[in-house]
Design goal:
By secondary structure, this protein is mostly beta strands. The chain folds into 2 domains: 18-188, Porin (Beta Barrel), CATH 2.40.160.110; 218-374, Porin (Beta Barrel), CATH 2.40.160. It is 10% helix and 48% strand. The protein is built from 1 helix and 27 strands. The longest helix has 41 residues, at 375-415. The protein is elongated and about 120 Å long. It starts with 23 loop residues before the first strand and ends with a helix. 37% of the residues are buried. Bound molecules: 2-acetamido-2-deoxy-beta-D-glucopyranose (12 copies). Residues 80, 82, 96, 108, 110, 133, 135 line the site of one 2-acetamido-2-deoxy-beta-D-glucopyranose. One 2-acetamido-2-deoxy-beta-D-glucopyranose binds next to loops.
Length: 416
């Protein structure tokens, strides 16, 4: 192999306009010429095992990321160009490219992470270096143009997700700088700042269509490390939040139902807190945390976090509140509410629940314990009783009026 790469790394770090995610510049060189150049911000979401539960680590590609000169290459006849960014102790992000002469694409996206890094993966029960690969990521561009995608786009790689934003990259470069002509991803189309485009590229994901109606009821459970169910929930969920829509160029209010069959479930159970994490199509993450007050033996839904990262958004939507007090019940019981409830999290986000039954603690034999029903259901049960009582009262009044009337007319006869 007559490849002698002298690889230079230029790192430009600045705070992204919003979000404070660092952008990193990475270059792969061969001789004096650059073949791959990428400017991007990336953030990762990785689920890993602790000794007694699973956890999700969320972190960004640091500005100290460098090109791994050992693995990166401009490609040969039998190997593809490969950009490998190295960060921290043994974490890497790799992009491998291929071309057919008129288009080039990211052929595979590789993420390698080192579970021994306790700063990112505290309490991981393994010290393995895990490698996950995703092919056909859908990053395409015309050759001799720069692929541009400022909008955040999320890719799932194994059990992890990688979200790129502020991305500009080019492979098979004709010069040493990014080509001035750009291939703009669909997510950026319609953006007010979008310059003229040369070729269209496709990226995932499209924002969920505006469906609603009542959401389907899903059954979700979280397992302990020993495989026993520790949190059990059955409910329909609907998100109600507002964000700035790129395609409509205005703030829109969106109602989104969670579809149980498109939702992946994870979570954790600890002695006094339990959480349920629902991820819909890698773009929408809802985290519900229950806490137990062991003095009063009552539990409640104490924290709700929503992270939505749709291509129609300028920045990912994040909303979180950890001092909530919803779905209260007693330890050893489940909480039930058939009536629709609106759980306000922040002014721009509320969660609507439908036909909820949940038990975050002391689940035995995979079944709900006796339910404590919410006030609203009890009130709703009262309605027929009240209506019945009112009707009975009405009948009584009519009867009394009739009797009085009859007595009066009787008296009338006597005066004649
Ligand atoms: C790279 O550039 C240096 C100086 O700019 C030049 O001396 C050298 O010959 C070049 N190498 C190649 C392989 O072009
Ligand atoms: C966590 O443990 C489960 C069960 O042993 C295993 O199937 C899964 O692959 C592990 N997850 C990770 C991220 O290591
Ligand atoms: C991903 O691309 C790299 C570089 O081309 C290659 O070494 C690796 O085998 C590829 N992995 C998969 C699963 O295709
Ligand atoms: C993983 O991290 C540990 C601790 O930081 C380090 O000793 C080890 O060399 C790392 N593994 C790799 C492959 O870099
Ligand atoms: C490259 O692939 C694209 C999309 O599949 C196709 O439209 C184009 O004709 C191909 N170009 C060549 C030279 O094969
Ligand atoms: C790309 O640019 C190089 C150098 O300018 C040129 O030789 C090549 O033909 C161009 N390729 C295409 C497909 O336009
Ligand atoms: C978006 O709306 C603003 C103000 O309403 C307007 O100035 C701007 O031109 C609009 N942009 C697009 C791309 O429609
Ligand atoms: C780590 O925990 C998972 C479940 O949480 C378990 O399946 C796995 O065997 C554990 N691995 C080690 C190395 O202890
Ligand atoms: C599983 O683990 C939980 C707590 O981690 C414990 O309460 C329970 O008894 C265990 N069940 C079995 C079958 O070992
Ligand atoms: C999920 O269920 C809905 C309605 O039941 C159906 O329309 C949709 O195709 C399903 N999606 C998947 C991925 O199975
Ligand atoms: C799970 O493990 C962590 C650390 O190893 C410990 O602090 C916690 O109490 C454990 N939780 C349960 C429910 O055993
Ligand atoms: C737990 O409940 C007791 C009794 O209702 C209350 O005094 C205490 O403040 C609660 N503790 C927490 C942490 O909420």
């Amino acid at each position: 192999m007559k490849l002698s790469h002298s690889l230079a790394v230029l790192i430009i770090a600045w705070f992204a306009v919003i979000g404070r995610i660092q952008a990193v510049t990475l270059e792969v060189n061969e001789g004096n010429s650059t073949c791959i150049k990428a400017e991007l911000s990336a953030s990762f979401s990785i689920t890993y095992n602790t000794s007694n539960s699973t956890r999700t680590a969320q972190f960004s590609l640091p500005d100290s990321a460098t090109v791994d000169t050992g693995s990166s290459s401009c490609g040969t006849d039998n190997s593809s160009p490969w950009l490998v960014a190295l960060f921290g102790p043994g974490h890497t992000l790799g992009l491998s490219f291929s071309t057919n002469g008129s288009l080039y694409n990211v052929a595979n996206l590789t993420l390698q992470y080192n579970l021994s890094d306790t700063s990112i993966f505290p309490d991981a029960n393994s010290s393995d270096v895990v490698t996950v690969v995703s092919s056909s990521v859908g990053i395409w561009a015309t050759i001799n143009t720069t692929y541009r995608c400022v909008s955040p786009t999320t890719f799932s790689v194994g059990g992890a997700t990688v979200t790129f934003s502020d991305m500009r990259l080019e492979a098979y470069m004709p010069g040493n700088d990014l080509s001035p002509t750009e291939s703009v991803c669909t997510a950026d189309k319609g953006s007010p700042t979008a310059p003229p485009t040369t070729a269209s590229t496709t990226t995932t994901p499209a924002p969920p269509p505006t469906p609603p109606g009542t959401p389907e009821r899903g059954t979700y459970s979280v397992n302990n490390s020993n495989g026993t169910v520790c949190l059990l929930a059955r409910m329909g969920l609907q998100l109600n939040f507002s964000y700035f829509s790129l395609s409509q160029n205005k703030t829109v209010q969106e109602l989104v139902n969670l579809s149980p069959n498109e939702t992946s479930v994870s979570g954790s159970c600890e002695a006094s807190s339990a959480s349920l994490v629902l991820i819909q199509e890698q773009t929408t993450t809802l985290n519900l945390t229950f806490t137990l007050n062991s003095t009063s033996n009552k539990y409640r839904l104490s924290a709700i976090t929503l992270l939505a990262n749709w291509s129609d958004m300028t920045v990912p939507f994040r909303a979180s509140n950890d001092s909530l007090d919803y779905l209260r019940s007693t330890l050893g019981r489940s909480y039930m509410c058939n009536a629709e409830q609106t759980l306000t999290v922040v002014p721009t986000f509320s969660l609507n629940t439908f036909r909820v039954q949940v038990q975050p603690f002391e689940v035995t034999t995979n079944q709900f314990a006796t339910a404590e029903e919410c006030q609203m259901d009890q009130t709703q049960m009262l309605i027929p009783i009240i209506v019945g009582a009112a009707l009975a009262g009405l009948v009584l009044i009519v009867l009394i009026a009739y009797l009085i009337g009859r007595k009066r007319s009787h008296a009338g006869y006597q005066t004649i």
